[in-house]
């Protein structure tokens, strides 16, 4: 059994330390093999590094995850330099992961550089193949907005968040079930930027739209969307209070009913 598959199986069984050890061994072996045959085996090193980054992040080992993510970016950069069409999307994704890790460690400038490069690459890809890469661009823009907001660059964050909303709105038109929840999350992110600029009326409008979009999915699969819906409802109540008005029950009511049902079904 390949080591990555073994690591996946161990994770499913809840043996997280053993899964991590198998992933680390896979990286060590693929690193040695790729040193002698980079053209053929660098992609395998990239896959094993990506798996290791995910496990380290889940384990809360951010510094180690960051080091693995930095190596992953360099692997994808090397692959993209010779096989651009095949590996440029992977470079954009690994840069996005690196930006998230830098940001979590409070390294704003490094996070910003990685997030901007990821957006630039995704913009190129979406320009030539919008159906394939517009969702990637939307996700990269959302990540950039989060980094900018964390750095206190509020106007720039709002611009990136707004562009993410526009991109998700476009892809949701043709594939609503796949992207309406993402659009709701992007609207929430933009509302947070608007709140930071004290534009509360616009923030509330975004929150209302996001709740309306997410409610059918929350009703059908509540466990998949409860975290986002909970955040939307909390934010909506807070912004309504700040504006001195009662929450709009026509917007919040259906989701609150789902929450009440979930509470009633919970074992005592």
Overall, the morphology is globular
Gyration radius, in Å: 21 Å
Q: Unreliable segments (pLDDT under 50, ≥5 consecutive)? A: none
Mean pLDDT: 93
Rounded to the nearest angstrom, the distance between the terminal CA atoms is 43 Å
Kindly name the structural category.
Answer: mainly alpha
Fraction of helical residues: over 70%
Sequence of secondary-structure elements? HHHHHHHHHHHH
Q: What is the oligomer described by this structure?
A: single chain
What is the beta-strand fraction? under 5%
Number of continuous helical runs: 12
Largest sheet: none
Number of DSSP strands?
0
What does this protein structure show overall?
The chain is mainly α and 268 residues long. Helices cover 88% and strands 0% of the residues. The protein has a domain of 70 residues.
Key structural traits:
single chain; mainly alpha; 268 residues
How would you summarize what this structure contains?
This protein has 268 residues and is mainly alpha-helical.
List the SSEs and their pairings:
Layout: H1 3-12, H2 16-36, H3 38-58, H4 62-82, H5 84-104, H6 108-128, H7 130-150, H8 154-174, H9 176-196, H10 200-220, H11 222-242, H12 249-265
């Amino acid at each position: 059994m390949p080591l990555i598959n073994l690591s996946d199986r161990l994770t499913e069984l809840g043996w997280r330390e053993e899964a991590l050890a198998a992933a680390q061994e896979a990286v060590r072996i693929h690193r040695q093999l790729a040193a002698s045959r980079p053209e053929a085996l660098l992609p395998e090193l990239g896959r094993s590094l990506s798996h290791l980054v995910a496990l380290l992040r889940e384990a809360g080992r951010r510094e180690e995850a960051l080091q693995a993510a930095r190596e992953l970016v360099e692997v994808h950069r090397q692959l993209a330099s010779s096989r651009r069409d095949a590996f440029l999307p992977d470079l954009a994704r690994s840069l996005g992961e690196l930006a998230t890790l830098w940001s979590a460690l409070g390294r704003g400038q490094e996070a910003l550089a990685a997030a901007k490069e990821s957006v630039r690459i995704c913009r190129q890809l979406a320009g030539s193949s919008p159906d394939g890469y517009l969702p990637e661009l939307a996700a990269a823009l959302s990540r950039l907005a989060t980094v900018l907001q964390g750095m206190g660059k509020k106007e720039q964050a709002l611009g990136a968040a707004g562009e993410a909303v526009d991109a998700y709105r476009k892809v949701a038109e043709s594939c609503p079930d796949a992207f309406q929840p993402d659009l709701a999350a992007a609207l929430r992110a933009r509302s947070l930027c608007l709140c930071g600029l004290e534009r509360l009326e616009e923030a509330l409008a975004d929150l209302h739209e996001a709740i309306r979009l997410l409610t059918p999915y929350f009703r059908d699969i509540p466990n998949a969307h409860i975290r986002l819906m909970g955040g939307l409802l909390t934010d909506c109540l807070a912004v309504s209070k700040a504006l001195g008005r009662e929450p709009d029950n026509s917007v919040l009511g259906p989701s609150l009913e789902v929450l009440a049902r979930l509470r009633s079904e919970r074992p005592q």
